[in-house]
Amino acid sequence: MARSLHLALLLLVVGIAGWVGAQPSEEVPIGGTLRDATLRGLNGPPRELSEFFGKPLIINVWASWCGPCRAEMASLERLAWRDESRDLIVIGISTDDYEDRALAALTSSNATITHFIDRNLLMEKMLGASRLPLTVLVAPDGRVLDKVYGAREWDSAAALAHIERVFRGPSQDASAR
């Protein structure tokens, strides 16, 4: 009797572990499509993530306490305001726990691009922001094309070439030859 009880408990534990392991990951991988989400406005009104689809989208995930995040903010602003970037949308998502600290960071950086705050970690988990800063390049259809961890000078020649290459994609590379 005790042996069959142990076996039943073992099967139950293995079954639960298998069920938990079979759950879809919250993170959308490169190649996956972002799920819609309501973004809580930080320096503007709330918006649905899907409202930004239709054009190439760059999402920068940052926090006020993150020095590298703050260091790259000005280059993201310059990128967003380049004439060549008029068909590109750049948004920021703060992972700060305290909205006042995030707002202070935006004020000190003279931010003009739209920023949101992710207090419930929905976007942080969906984008895979295990470390900051994270910049995600998203196709007009909502597919994640690339994830770049760490600060960059986003308006530098190297970064602009990378952005163009990612958004152009391999199919257009082949037709351009």
Q: Can you tag this structure with a few keywords?
A:
177 residues; alpha/beta; seven-stranded mixed beta sheet; 40% helix; disordered C terminus
Quick recap:
The chain is 40% helix and 19% strand.
3D architecture notes:
The chain is an alpha/beta fold and 177 residues long. The chain has five helices and seven strands. A seven-stranded mixed beta sheet has the order 2-1-5-4-3-6-7. It starts with a helix and ends with a helix.
Fold topology:
Layout: H1 2-21, E1 38-41, E2 47-48, E3 57-62, H2 67-81, E4 89-94, H3 99-108, E5 114-117, H4 122-127, E6 134-138, E7 144-149, H5 157-176
Parallel strand pairs: 3-4, 4-5
Antiparallel strand pairs: 1-2, 1-5, 3-6, 6-7
> Nearest-angstrom radius of gyration?
20 Å
User: Can you give the helix content as a percent range?
Assistant: 40-55%
Q: pLDDT under 50 segments (min length 5)?
A: 5-24, 172-177
Structure annotation, total helices:
5
Q: Which overall shape is indicated by the principal axes computed on the Cα atoms?
A: globular
Strand content: 15-25%
β-strand number: 7
